[in-house]
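As noted in the main text, all predictions were made from sequence alone. Below is one such record, for Valine dehydrogenase (NAD+).
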Amino acid sequence: MSELSAHPDVDVTEVTEATDVADVLDAATEHEQVVFCHDRPTGLRAVVAIHSTALGPALGGTRFHPYASTGEALADVLALSRGMTYKAALAGLDLGGGKAVIVGDPRTLKSEALLRAYGRFVQSLGGRYYTACDVGTYSADMDLVARECDFVTGRTVAHGGAGDSSVLTAYGVFQGMRAAAEATWGSPTLEGRTVGVAGVGKVGRHLVRHLLEDGARVVVTDVWQPAVDRLREEHPEVEVVGSADELVASPLDVYAPCALGGALSDEVVEVLSARVVCGAANNQLAHPGTEKLLAERGILYAPDYCVNAGGLVQVADELEGFSFERAQQRAAGIFDTTRTVLELARTDGVPPAVAADRLAERRIHEVGRLRGVWLPAR
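Prediction:
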């Protein structure tokens, strides 16, 4: 089933000025449901995309970002929600893929009223979509969303939630990086390796700690100077460069994109010296075919949705009554999952991104409900 659902309050003018309706429908053909949300009093403009509920209700975070247009926001949420389907499937969860984006600068637009209005929109989906934190949103924000909505994860520990999902996201990326190091250098450790981390916000900051504890040399960059300053206060031994372009041109063993998507462009792949790419950012490949360019250059790419699933595992555990120890144990399994993906890539003679897709699609087809979509119990 694929449909474009419009909320009664959707501002059709704002949508069509950014992208033609036909283009929206073409882009959403893989998706079960796309909902445009607009609340004039609070300034909320959001898009919720449900890619698949074949394995269960869709779960995915809410990204709050100053997109240049509704079309740009739509393109991002469609790609992110598809990635969540594959991420949940590969992680062995009985969940589908969804995502939401709120258009605007969270530093100026975010308010209690806006988040509660957003919660009402999520509630209107009847449990087909569970939301959580993402770029620009935090556990405290989810507490506000939950005052209007029953389908929220990633809440603060004080409210019975899993807290900041970036903790296990970083832990899972580190486990995936260990598996990639084993496949590349024969040992599952980053000791003595130089790792470049682009983006040291919520996830990158925690990843740096794991890398330093493992004996790696770490070089970082971030467009937001306060994030760099905070990291340097915690870890003065970390080296800092001025830009992502400077970082990728540096001598690296591992490159870890941990900011927004599209980091692996043709230009980046061309100059990258790292033997391994393994990071937390979603949708790192700038376009289809980038995975082949990486393989041709002898760069091992650990698929993003494989290694960054720790945060999803963390907030999904909240649905059972959160246990950090249990969630961490499950996130540790990302090491074995990444190892399986890389071994399949080797035996099948395909890039790791293709191997990961094959494993995820196999589970979706074999385990997915015959009716194809998830509906709440009546």
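Residues 70-90 form the longest helix (21 residues). Residues 1-19 have pLDDT under 50 and may be disordered. These features were considered when defining construct boundaries for the mutagenesis experiments described in Section 2.9.
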